[in-house]
Design goal:
CATH superfamily of the largest domain: Spore Coat Polysaccharide Biosynthesis Protein SpsA, Chain A
CATH class of the largest domain: Alpha Beta
Radius of gyration: 19 Å
Shape: globular
Mean pLDDT: 91
Number of strands: 12
Structural class: alpha/beta
CATH topology of the largest domain: Spore Coat Polysaccharide Biosynthesis Protein SpsA, Chain A
């Protein structure tokens, strides 16, 4: 059985295709939890009127992706939890394939990454997360044409939480005072941090390309400068937590040739960086 957790924030243009793709599955052993982060459009009305079986959590303001997912995880009933952004559409048979898959997964697999494609069904959005030696993170295959290069299951660093399957036991094992997903991140990089923490606890992540879904990306229309700033700040928080500055600074190359020039560039070009925007409220 599967708990599906979907985040919404002013999502009236996306939530119906997302929910229809879930409830249209032949596999029916699942629950759907929607956590709404203070929508001011018609999102709530659509859910209440058209999807009465949805378990709905209504926040009065935008508490961020990490907090909202944690709220859903706290009330989820089942052993496997599928996190979805509101603009994700599941391929037919997606949940049935999960049901068959989880019966055979080794017990140390805590994270499963579907193949996420753009809505054109031709280009890759993510086949998992990769963390480099310089502690830069990437979505594997992003923007590339899908020609079967990621057609086999393989071990990866972690999963993009826009569409990711997590084992409840892993969540319980890695939970911190700041939540399953660290709520200090607000949004962006929180899934990379979670994957790193899981690895340190010897949990593994796996790409399973037979699970396919489609994702538009950035349905919240977040300002590009804001995204840039949050990625920058959250990356440093992630490094501080999981590696520590002493270990990171032993590698002088990334500091001299990557981090220091980026700091200078963002200070000049990004107004959020200069203002020191508050991560928790996003204000």
């Amino acid at each position: 059985m599967i708990s599906i957790i979907i985040l919404t924030h002013n999502s009236e243009n996306f939530i119906k295709p997302c929910l229809d793709s879930a409830f249209g599955q032949k596999h029916q052993d699942f629950e759907v939890i929607v956590v709404d982060n203070g929508s001011k459009d018609g999102t709530i009305e659509i859910i209440k009127n058209d999807y009465p079986s949805v378990i709905l959590i209504e926040n009065n303001e935008n508490l961020g992706a990490s907090k909202a997912r944690n709220q859903g995880i706290d009330i989820a009933k089942y052993e496997w939890i599928l996190t979805l952004d509101n603009d994700v559409v599941l391929e037919k048979g997606f949940l049935s394939r999960i049901q068959g898959l989880i019966k055979s997964l080794p017990k140390d697999i805590g994270i499963v990454q579907p193949k996420i494609l753009y809505p054109d069904k031709k280009k890759i959005y993510s086949c998992g997360l990769y963390l480099s030696w310089m502690r830069r993170f990437y979505d594997i295959g992003k923007g590339k044409k899908d020609v079967g290069q990621y057609s086999k299951a393989k071990e990866i660093f972690g999963a993009c939480s826009a569409a990711a399957l997590y084992r409840r036991d892993m969540f319980d094992d890695i939970r911190e005072d700041t939540g399953y997903f660290d709520e200090r991140f607000f949004f962006l990089v929180e899934d990379v941090d979670l994957a790193w923490r899981a690895q340190k606890k010897v949990w593994k992540a796996q790409l399973r390309p037979e699970l396919i879904c489609y994702h538009s990306g950035d349905s919240s229309l977040t300002d590009i400068k804001m995204r840039q700033y949050l990625c920058f700040k959250n990356r440093y928080l992630m490094i501080e937590k999981n590696e520590g500055w002493k270990n990171y600074t032993l590698r002088i190359f990334p500091l001299l040739f990557y981090d220091f020039p980026r700091r200078v560039y963002f200070f000049i070009s990004n107004p959020y960086f200069r203002r020191g925007i508050n991560l928790k409220t996003g204000s």
